[in-house]
Amino acid sequence: MVSLLLVAGVAVAAFVGFNIGGSSTGVAFGPAVGSGSVSKTGAAALMTVFAVLGGATAGTNVIETMGGDIVPSSQFTLVASVAVLFFVGLALLVSNLFGVPASTSMTAVGAIAGLGVATGTVDWEVMGRIVTWWLVAPITAFWLCAVVGRYLYPHLEARFALESPGEERSTRERVGTALVVAIGCYMAYAAGASNVANAVGPLYGGRLFGDAFTPYVALAGLAIGVGAFTIARRTLDTVGNDLTDLPVLAALIVEVVSATIITGLSQIGIPASLAVSATMCIVGLGWGRATRTTTLADAATEAVAGPPETDGDEGGVSVDAIADGDGPAAPEPGEVPKIGEEEPAEVTAADLFDPAATGRVVMLWILTPSISAVASYLVFRYLPLV
Q1: CA–CA separation, 291 vs 224, rounded Å?
Q2: What's the predicted TM-score (pTM) here?
Q3: The predicted structure's pLDDT at residue 22
């Protein structure tokens, strides 16, 4: 009986890791694939290597949190570990079937919290600290990228002019390709540091393979690699193409901000969501770019007095004046328009987020951890598994 449960535990952990690979690869390399800097196969290979590296270093802190801090390690019997991991894998599978990068950490913590609530052993102080960071991290990601999008992005774009690679690559294109792939690897490292624990934390809590971290990281890494080469293709399309058509420079900004936030949280043992932070970076960057069409003073004036009159020759520039060439002068090549002078058509096309796709992502973020937490609570509350 024990041997069968052991096989089941390994299989379910591998199933979770498989779904993590499908979800996190899109988050880590979606911008790189969307900008044409790396192929889907290359992204999968890089994801596997750097996720294992992240799990073996900063990820051990998160494994300890998931395997004994939220609920006591004594609660992770082999049966309980299998059940928790099953709920996590089921919720993640639902998310991947929709082609949306799931909040893996929230899903895993939800399942463990369901166990803790059902048995009366959850550490609410630890849960409070984790949930606080869940709120702080995406808000920070959004506003950092919103500020960059509004005030810095056009200047960086004019100065560096990074472009997606073409058939004949210029030096700038080569530099841009190298940077976006390198930082994608950094994101894969951050994903491994945070998400390896989601696949094997319960097994480590029960010390299924002993006290050493190596076998747990190896199991998760192998499963993540399989997921990266298979079901990750849908999430690569979602992040790289549906949310926004990212140019290379925007991809670099999203990757640096989100990976830095998650790596920092992993160092202090917080199981944070790379999917949430990265997508909020994309939304924040697009929103920040969109706000360049108006100044803060103009926005405040409109809020109080209403929009200005634009009929005839009073207030604003008429359509006829623009057609006759009497409107605002176009900026010289390489010159950045000032805030309030940028035309809406210049910043609301391919470089902004898609609200419909973003809404679908947010809905699945709420749904997947809810599924795992409720299912876990009901099973451990009413079935004698612990």
Answers
A1: 39
A2: 0.78
A3: 82
